[in-house]
């Protein structure tokens, strides 16, 4: 006996449609979740890439280099100890670099507090140049380095506070995330080595040894070593590992040098004798810092590739999702058409045919 095609068939058809809609919703939701995950991955990659390649951050890194180790303060201290036209030229070059960087920072229209910090750094750069001119005159009359150091003392505290402020504004004061930690740690290391840091204090201690200066030097050495140790915990390549070994060895040499200064001072050695005994070649350590910079640049390139792949994957997933939704809706419409035809159109046609035949007396 043939099953009826009335309300029960329509109810059954409704259930099937409901199940199909649920399946489609589940599929679309799953693809949407994967697409969202891809988009979030791309966003994180972009944030990390932007954090370490932003122009302002690069300018701050240049500023630390120009003021600190192998920069203006370092070359000024060496000029007081040794003199020489080459160091004079490097002091002038450092000042020009600082002027260029500060001009670029001004072009960014910083807030009032940051603008004041920029001017404090400009004042320090100008002061170093003036003091270098005075040092040249003092060397012509054979003034001892210790006396020159005493007479040419520079108050670096305002400029150091200004550097700290600008680093905080640029997000470079602490290693906030593992992905950006290497960049922040390198800035931290440069800060500990530079203006008012290890190299500056080492030469201050060499020119005018004192217990407080010795304690400050050791504290900055500890902080610099801690920055390198933290850098080692992050992913790095062989060239970075070699650079870290070189810089760690350099810090150990400086620590031993500080002890040697104390011993030689006790024996009556002057600053010139100490400088001759403790001179080192800065080239390998500057090259090590450059290697760390290159490693960070390589990481940036890797994050840029991750960003590109994540965004491309998200776009492809969106395209696939749209296609599946279109096919699903087409299939659903065909199914509804077929079901309605079976449950309503065909029975209605049969009834109409029967009525027509009854009307004809059949």
Brief descriptors of the model:
single chain; 362 residues; mainly alpha; 13 helices; 0% strand; disordered N terminus
End-to-end gap: 23 Å
Order of helices and strands: HHHHHHHHHHHHH
Low-confidence stretches: 1-8, 175-180
Task: Write down the Rg.
Answer: 37 Å
Q: Please report the total strand number as a whole number.
A: 0
Q: What best-fitting shape do the alpha-carbon axes yield?
A: elongated
Query: What average pLDDT do the residues reach?
Result: 80
Q: How much of the polypeptide forms β-strand, as a percent range?
A: under 5%
Based on secondary structure, the structural category is mainly alpha
Percent helix: over 70%
Counting DSSP H or I runs of 4 or more residues, the number of helices is 13
List the helices and strands and how they pair.
Blueprint: H1 7-53, H2 55-67, H3 72-82, H4 85-107, H5 112-140, H6 145-151, H7 157-169, H8 178-193, H9 198-207, H10 211-232, H11 238-266, H12 271-278, H13 283-359
Structural notes for this entry:
With 362 residues, this protein is mainly alpha-helical. Helix content is 84%, strand content 0%. The N terminus is likely disordered.
